[in-house]
Amino acid sequence: MKKLFYIPVAIAIFSLTMPGTALSAEQERDIVLRVSISDDRDNVNLALKGRYKMYPINSDAVVMEGPYLAANVTATKDGIKIGKGQIALAAVKVKVAKDSNIYVDSRRFRGDIDIIRKDNGRIMVVNYIGLEDYLYGVLYHEVSHRWPAEVLKAQAIAARTFALYQARQNKSQPYDLRSDIYSQVYGGRTSEKWSTTRAVDLTKGEVLTYNGDIVPAYYHATCAGYTEDASALWNMDVPYLKGVQCGYCKNSKHYKWRKEISLWELADKLKDGGYKIGKIASVTVLSKNRSDRVDKIEIKDDAGISVILTGKDFRQIIGPNEVRSTKFDASIKWNLLILEGLGWGHGVGMCQWGAYGMARKGMKAEEILKYYYPGTEISTIDKVKL
Predict the structure, then answer these.
(1) What are the tens digits of pLDDT across the range 247-272?
(2) Which of 59, 246, 255, 319 to pair with 18, CA 20 to 30 A apart?
(3) Interhelix angle for 149-169 vs 194-202, to 10°?
(4) Spatial separation of the C-alpha atoms in residues 140 and 161, rounded to whole Å
């Protein structure tokens, strides 16, 4: 049987202009992002409520169409199986009529989707979505839609900037952004709220720039007193991502946290991460940086074998939702590792609960953004060099 190979879909969807040139108003309207809304799946549930057509990637030849579809999508050795229908292609594009809707795993999405059979025989779904429509589905997941309007506007500008930065970084990849915490959480049309949509509309086209260029506008939930230097986490030493003191997030529900992990579970996670270690005897924080986050942590087993990790790597191994930040102290009691920490997130850029506190004090979106990204300016996409 002829082997079908995965067809790359990173073909210039975001190639809006040559590097170093600004966007025209027409190009700005045409910005389309590729968002991975499902990846490495055995199957996905697809519902097309209204007229639809399916095409091969980069072709206008219709391979399937109809007024309605509800089906389970799987991969086979010959291509993609949609319900009972077999399509002998490694990837298809799904488009729906203007008054129709696309649902993937019960979530409603604007735009079009590509369904892709990857080389590993699993399914990936990529949503092709306009920039502003994408943001409609992001803000609800990143901040409370009940928060003050100035926070929502600041978040919209930061999220728009971050999306464009990620898209530029990932031009050669099969998607620009993921739909989870490793990019920005995106839930599609199902996640849209009036207040967050209004914030996107009120800031339409606005981005953060430094010396005329878009910036990596990282943000996080709660810094717990001091944001982090980007250089402490990544190979990125820029003036607008230096840590700043933040006294605005004290009312965050994430300000303090506690996590208990059994020592055998810790050992298993370390082994899964490639570290050889036996029965754990001690866990010691060796050093912290100026924002009071863990720089180095040492784990020893009862045979004296030692593993030294950065706080960032330790958090990733255990899980970023388990170890909410690297701002913690560690102790062992009754075969449990006890972590007592402050804040949630990597700590770089805008502190969202800090932004909330600033807005409650009457500060505007521009003031919030300039505080957390010092030296930046709010510009518009048509003036940005990409």
Answers:
(1) 999 999 999 999 999 999 999 999 99
(2) 59
(3) 70
(4) 17
